[in-house]
Task: inverse folding
């Protein structure tokens, strides 16, 4: 078996540099296998986040040769010859080596108003496969946050994190918006506080999605259309003015008792 | 109490953020309690996401004849009657409600033509019973519960590793001591009740479907804290793990492949499972391929194909075929759905299997067979609990999910795990709330106990010379795979027991390099005591159970012995430390009421 050289960024918030590791590689191995071999031999303190090693949990997202990728799904033999450069995701603050602080995403998750379904009828809700399929596509998301990493709105503009939820949460809002049971209305929230308008549909997020979710075409664009309809529809505008009604609620669904 | 460490105080503290932990949190939170969740990883990454095929619940959406009694019977038969019958009964009765409640919280299950929740066939279940979302049901479960927990504004401590449970002065659980993985700083938690929901222990075997997290932390901490572990020798080797490339050996291939029509073949192309039908399953298993094939479309037209026997039966059969020289090139057998279903069907029903094989092995499962073999998947054994409340024998300590024992007996049926998580996660939340309401909970926290655990955890930094923790982990995995794997024998198990003492000394001599902040070598070092404790109880159980039953197969005692169906082996420690001697006793099974016994007698 031949060797492979990994150029891995090592350091923490105070700074760091690349270190080269030349280790053996075996047939069919992914980048994460080689990182594990480096940990087990030369560098037991090399920080790298991972869990399932099967592309199902999204923990091991990093940048491989400058492109976001899951370390556990990127086969060494499918990368170009020569050294492989591995760096942490750029959009998030460094914790150590390849591990970043992704808490931005967990903060954004807290702001999503919960599903608010009608009471469940006897025997359960009736929903048809075609009704649930659109939402199912978005629920494939494994929360690797590579779409967030690659989104230039926050990748190049730290200040936008204050008012921009990012593609991962636009598919979440789209999913709830299209959910057959939901009665909440989040359209104003998405427009005013989640910064949907900042997205100029360059489709970078769609390209890196390991679950092949059509983030831009199936979530962001339809969501933009719905938000625009809600905001610029004169009847809806008048309704908002007269009733001063806000229908979103984050707590209602949470306190519903179990059936 | 004064503390030099960061300290938090909760009513209910939940260790583990998989399905059981999150469901417990929701329940405790709904009861107005202050709830904290601690997880070794980020929220939403727990091993529950790896569950693929579905969640068993006798809703009767596909076969109206299905009901809790049939589900109960299937579970007990699958468990070879070693189950805590009351857990199996509650599980069968309550699973449908738990599925429906997930839907109220946003889950989107696949549907029947009538718009109900679709249910899929799985091994050992008489009827199509698994609610599912393609082959990513675990992800749907964890995301739904995660989103619910977040919407309830629950405190979650991510990437925080618990070292040890802490008592008050009177033997009650009072909290725990942990460290933050990003910084390596220590943190203490006091709580009136602690719920263990730490999952499994498969990482001590070489070929496993478990992630790095499956180190048996909860099993071990419960034992050290004074609780009992039962049935630890009962380990499920899932019949279908990937075998090639080596880097993904052990990775799970869902039973849904067989539920949806996939069959097992040996190197001669033969469907060998017809040769391995045990007497207890003969009445309900097809005798010919034609009969089995009819069953997929209509369960009344024929009996189920033998590929859908319980997992222990299928895993042993694969093992035997490989041993007999009829295996695949990389030491497994072939799982073939390509010749039996259309590419469209396969891609729609099994999308993540399609991608997994395409991307990791370069195999197109719509046109080629998969190579598969058994992989260490699940531990049936766990903390002994009360079925109704999930209470352990230690006041203030509760356990739910894979870390708890009894529900699945000697072998778990596929699909019964996801439903177990939510049924008993909820019950643990109720149990903890009632315990707190009783006014009996701890009011003090033994800081000396926490400080001792911290001293032990930092000791490896003081050694300049010593062992590499990764070497110990690798050797342990190889040793357990070899000596306490799918087929066991007295000499090998005794050898394992002796070797585990040597491993204990090696762990005491680890030297850790680097600092405490996000240091995987140190993190592994703090996992190893739990791994060894679990392995010791597994090996002891495997030595004492001189019979074959479910997930415990003895080459030297190939048959089940009715005498061994009357009790569980229960382990405790003499001393409460990770290197304390383990004491094992026979703990009688709960006596089953006559009306439930009658359900088991019904042949069909």
Result:
């Amino acid at each position: 078996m031949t060797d492979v050289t990994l150029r891995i960024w090592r350091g923490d918030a105070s700074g760091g540099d690349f270190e080269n590791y030349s280790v053996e590689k075996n047939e069919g191995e992914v980048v994460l296998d080689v990182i594990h071999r480096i940990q087990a031999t030369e560098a037991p303190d090399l920080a790298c986040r991972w869990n399932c090693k099967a592309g199902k949990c999204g923990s091991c997202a990093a940048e491989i040769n400058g492109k976001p990728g899951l370390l556990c799904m990127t086969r060494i033999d499918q990368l170009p010859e020569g050294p492989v450069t591995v760096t942490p995701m750029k959009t998030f603050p460094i914790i150590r080596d390849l591990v970043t602080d992704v808490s931005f995403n967990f903060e954004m998750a807290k702001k999503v108003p919960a599903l608010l379904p009608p009471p469940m009828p006897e025997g359960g809700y009736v929903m048809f496969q075609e009704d649930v399929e659109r939402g199912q596509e978005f629920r494939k998301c494994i929360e690797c946050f590579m779409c967030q990493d690659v989104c230039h709105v926050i990748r190049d503009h730290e200040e936008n994190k204050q008012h921009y939820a990012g593609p991962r949460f636009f598919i979440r809002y789209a999913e709830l918006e299209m959910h057959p049971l939901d009665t909440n209305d989040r359209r104003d929230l998405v427009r005013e506080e989640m910064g949907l308008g900042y997205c100029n549909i360059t489709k970078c997020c769609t390209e890196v999605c390991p679950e092949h979710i059509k983030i831009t075409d199936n979530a962001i664009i339809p969501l933009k259309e719905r938000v625009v309809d809600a905001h610029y529809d004169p009847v809806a505008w008048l309704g908002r003015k007269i009733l001063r009604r806000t229908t979103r609620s984050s707590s209602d669904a949470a306190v519903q008792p179990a059936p | 109490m004064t503390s030099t460490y960061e300290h938090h105080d909760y009513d209910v503290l939940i260790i583990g953020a998989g399905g059981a932990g999150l469901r417990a949190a929701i329940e405790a939170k709904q009861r107005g309690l202050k709830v904290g969740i601690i997880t070794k990883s980020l929220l939403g990454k727990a091993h529950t996401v790896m569950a693929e095929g579905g969640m068993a619940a006798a809703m009767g959406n596909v076969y109206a004849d299905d009901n809790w009694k049939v589900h109960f019977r299937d579970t007990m038969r699958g468990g070879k009657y070693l189950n805590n019958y009351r857990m199996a009964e509650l599980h069968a009765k309550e699973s449908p409600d738990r599925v429906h409640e997930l839907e109220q919280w946003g889950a989107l299950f696949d549907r029947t033509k009538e718009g109900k929740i679709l249910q899929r066939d799985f091994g050992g279940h008489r009827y199509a019973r698994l609610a599912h979302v393609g082959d990513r049901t675990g992800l749907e479960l964890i995301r739904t519960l995660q989103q619910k927990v977040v919407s309830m504004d629950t405190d979650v401590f991510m990437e925080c590793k618990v070292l040890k449970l802490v008592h008050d002065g009177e033997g009650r659980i009072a909290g725990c001591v942990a460290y933050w993985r990003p910084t390596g700083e220590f943190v203490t938690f006091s709580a009136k009740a602690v719920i263990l929901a730490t999952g499994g222990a498969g990482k001590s075997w070489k070929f496993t479907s478990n992630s790095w997290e499956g180190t048996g932390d909860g099993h071990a901490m419960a034992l050290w804290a004074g609780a009992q572990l039962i049935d630890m020798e009962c380990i499920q080797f899932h019949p279908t793990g990937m075998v090639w490339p080596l880097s993904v050996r052990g990775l799970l291939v869902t039973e849904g492949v067989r539920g949806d029509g996939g069959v097992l073949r040996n190197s001669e192309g033969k469907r060998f499972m017809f040769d391995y039908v045990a007497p207890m399953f003969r009445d309900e298993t097809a005798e010919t391929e034609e009969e089995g094939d009819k069953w997929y479309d209509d369960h009344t037209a024929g009996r189920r194909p033998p590929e859908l026997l319980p997992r222990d039966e299928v895993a042993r059969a694969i093992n035997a075929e490989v041993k007999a020289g009829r295996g695949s090139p990389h030491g497994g057998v072939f799982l073939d759905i390509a010749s039996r279903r259309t590419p469209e069907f396969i891609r729609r029903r099994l999308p993540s299997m399609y991608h997994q094989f395409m991307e990791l092995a370069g195999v197109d499962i719509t046109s080629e067979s998969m190579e598969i073999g058994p992989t260490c998947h699940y531990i049936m054994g766990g903390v002994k609990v009360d079925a109704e409340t999930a209470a352990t024998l230690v006041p203030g300590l509760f356990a739910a999910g894979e870390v708890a024992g009894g529900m699945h007996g000697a072998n778990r049926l596929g699909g019964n795990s996801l439903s177990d998580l939510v049924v008993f996660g909820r019950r643990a939340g109720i149990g903890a709330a009632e315990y707190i309401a009783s006014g009996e909970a701890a009011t003090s926290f033994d800081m000396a106990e926490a400080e001792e655990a911290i001293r032990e955890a930092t000791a490896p930094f003081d050694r300049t010379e010593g062992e590499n923790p990764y070497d110990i982990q690798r050797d342990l995995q190889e040793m357990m795979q070899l000596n306490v794997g799918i087929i066991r024998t007295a000499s090998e198990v005794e050898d394992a027991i002796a070797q585990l003492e040597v491993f204990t000394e090696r762990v005491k001599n680890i030297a850790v390099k680097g600092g405490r902040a996000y240091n995987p070598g140190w993190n592994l070092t703090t996992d190893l005591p739990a791994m060894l404790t679990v392995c010791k109880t597994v090996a002891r159980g495997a030595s004492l159970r001189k019979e074959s039953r479910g997930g415990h197969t003895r080459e030297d005692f190939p048959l089940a012995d009715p005498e061994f169906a009357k009790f569980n082996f229960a382990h405790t420690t003499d001393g409460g430390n990770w290197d304390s001697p383990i004491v094992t006793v026979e703990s009688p099974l709960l006596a089953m009421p006559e009306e439930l016994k009658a359900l088991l007698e019904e042949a069909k």
